[in-house]
Input
Amino acid sequence: DLGHTPFAHIGEEYLAKSMAPYGGFEHNDQSLRVLTTLERKYPRWGGLNLTWETLEGVVKHNGPHSNPQIAVQELQEQMDLELDSHSSIEAQVAALSDDIAYNNHDVEDGLRAHLFSIKDLEDVRLLGEVIHDVRDEYGDLEKRYLIQEMIREMIGAMVEDVLNETQSRLRKTNAQSVDDIRSAGRQMVAFSDDMRDKVDELRAFLFDRMYRHYTSNRIHLKVSRIIQDLFTAFTTSYTVLPDNWQTRVREAGGVENERIRARIVCDYIAGMTDRYAIREHERLFDLYWDLK
Output
């Protein structure tokens, strides 16, 4: 599903543009929609029948929710998610763990794609320190081992910093309960100021050398075409959707209602993997697909 690949990020951008006239699209809101509406596991209700704490964590993992989208608004009508407070420690850990994994995987992917070199990374404070430490310990390592050790050490440095900063914040607030965490006024699970500055520097490097690289721009162009073509085709002619998605359109009253139809098409596209979206585009727009 839409996640952290370049295809996914660009796909989200163009789904948001396509859905602007129909209520909008936002990644986290769509994730909640999957959990509460789109998954069909039970005969009497949609969604996965998750606990309040789990749903609250999904909604507020990045902090209080001041601008609820469609799925959050619908869920808030069913249960008070206390949107003006922070989430549990567990949800905060999950959110920051995602950021740590994301940045480290991007460094590894960028090196593998030759978008930058280890020498380039030496000028990035966080990575330069880690590379220096690895070389001090192991000497002149083969490149593949150097990369693996660098990533391992960088993850370790980030995790250790989060543990120390979180413990410090908990001591200062003297939190004794989950409610104390929710009402603390700030995230309890966080980087220290120094580490956050280093991570921001790394993100700026990745943005300049990876996300804005011409190869990424070419992917951007292709993905935008794929998403726009799929969205237009399915909303204009819903009968080219797979049978089960046509059924969803009819059951929801989307045959005559363009707004409802667009939302269901958005749900279908948002649930695609990169490869599936590419194949769907080929099936629809390669005139000789069925003859191959």
About this structure: The chain is about 70% helix and 0% strand.
